[in-house]
Amino acid sequence: MHCYRRLALKAVVCLTADMGPARPSQEPITKFSEADLQVTRLAPSAFAELPPNIRRELERRGCTVPQVSADKKPQNVIKGEFTRKGQTD
Questions:
Q1: Domain of 58?
Q2: Which end of the chain, N or C, is less surrounded by CB atoms within 10 Å?
Protein backbone atom coordinates (compact mmCIF):
# COMPACT_ATOMS: atom_id res chain seq x y z
CA MET A 1 0.00 0.00 0.00
CA HIS A 2 2.82 2.42 0.86
CA CYS A 3 4.48 1.79 -2.53
CA TYR A 4 1.17 2.50 -4.31
CA ARG A 5 0.85 5.89 -2.56
CA ARG A 6 4.38 6.85 -3.59
CA LEU A 7 3.69 5.86 -7.20
CA ALA A 8 0.42 7.80 -7.24
CA LEU A 9 2.16 10.87 -5.84
CA LYS A 10 4.87 10.64 -8.51
CA ALA A 11 2.20 10.42 -11.20
CA VAL A 12 0.46 13.55 -9.91
CA VAL A 13 3.75 15.43 -9.76
CA CYS A 14 4.66 14.37 -13.30
CA LEU A 15 1.27 15.29 -14.70
CA THR A 16 1.32 18.65 -12.97
CA ALA A 17 4.85 19.40 -14.14
CA ASP A 18 3.99 18.55 -17.77
CA MET A 19 1.02 20.92 -17.78
CA GLY A 20 3.24 23.93 -17.12
CA PRO A 21 2.18 26.90 -15.02
CA ALA A 22 -1.48 27.80 -14.94
CA ARG A 23 -2.22 30.82 -17.10
CA PRO A 24 -5.24 32.87 -16.19
CA SER A 25 -7.30 34.44 -18.90
CA GLN A 26 -5.93 37.74 -20.21
CA GLU A 27 -9.39 39.30 -19.91
CA PRO A 28 -9.21 40.04 -16.15
CA ILE A 29 -5.74 41.57 -16.59
CA THR A 30 -6.99 43.77 -19.42
CA LYS A 31 -10.03 44.90 -17.44
CA PHE A 32 -7.86 45.66 -14.43
CA SER A 33 -5.42 47.65 -16.56
CA GLU A 34 -8.25 49.65 -18.12
CA ALA A 35 -9.77 50.40 -14.70
CA ASP A 36 -6.36 51.32 -13.31
CA LEU A 37 -5.86 53.87 -16.08
CA GLN A 38 -9.11 55.58 -15.08
CA VAL A 39 -8.00 56.19 -11.49
CA THR A 40 -6.97 59.77 -10.78
CA ARG A 41 -3.66 59.90 -8.92
CA LEU A 42 -1.99 62.87 -7.28
CA ALA A 43 1.67 63.51 -6.63
CA PRO A 44 2.73 63.61 -2.96
CA SER A 45 3.37 67.34 -3.40
CA ALA A 46 -0.43 67.84 -3.59
CA PHE A 47 -0.62 67.07 0.15
CA ALA A 48 0.66 70.00 2.20
CA GLU A 49 0.10 68.03 5.42
CA LEU A 50 2.75 65.45 4.52
CA PRO A 51 6.02 65.97 6.37
CA PRO A 52 8.75 67.03 3.91
CA ASN A 53 10.88 63.92 4.49
CA ILE A 54 7.90 61.62 3.78
CA ARG A 55 6.92 63.61 0.70
CA ARG A 56 10.49 63.43 -0.66
CA GLU A 57 10.68 59.67 -0.08
CA LEU A 58 7.33 59.07 -1.79
CA GLU A 59 8.46 61.18 -4.74
CA ARG A 60 11.82 59.37 -4.88
CA ARG A 61 9.94 56.06 -5.11
CA GLY A 62 7.62 57.39 -7.80
CA CYS A 63 4.54 56.98 -5.60
CA THR A 64 1.21 58.60 -6.34
CA VAL A 65 -1.94 58.76 -4.23
CA PRO A 66 -5.14 57.33 -5.77
CA GLN A 67 -8.23 59.51 -5.45
CA VAL A 68 -11.95 58.85 -5.27
CA SER A 69 -13.35 60.44 -8.41
CA ALA A 70 -16.43 61.90 -6.68
CA ASP A 71 -14.42 64.12 -4.30
CA LYS A 72 -12.31 67.02 -5.59
CA LYS A 73 -10.39 67.53 -2.31
CA PRO A 74 -7.08 65.58 -2.12
CA GLN A 75 -7.56 62.46 0.00
CA ASN A 76 -6.11 59.06 0.99
CA VAL A 77 -3.30 60.37 3.16
CA ILE A 78 -3.82 59.49 6.79
CA LYS A 79 -2.13 60.24 10.08
CA GLY A 80 -2.19 58.39 13.34
CA GLU A 81 -0.10 56.80 16.06
CA PHE A 82 1.55 53.96 14.14
CA THR A 83 5.14 53.83 15.35
CA ARG A 84 4.79 54.79 18.98
CA LYS A 85 2.00 55.85 21.34
CA GLY A 86 1.81 59.63 21.52
CA GLN A 87 3.73 60.10 18.25
CA THR A 88 1.69 61.21 15.26
CA ASP A 89 2.84 59.54 12.05
A1: 39-89
A2: N
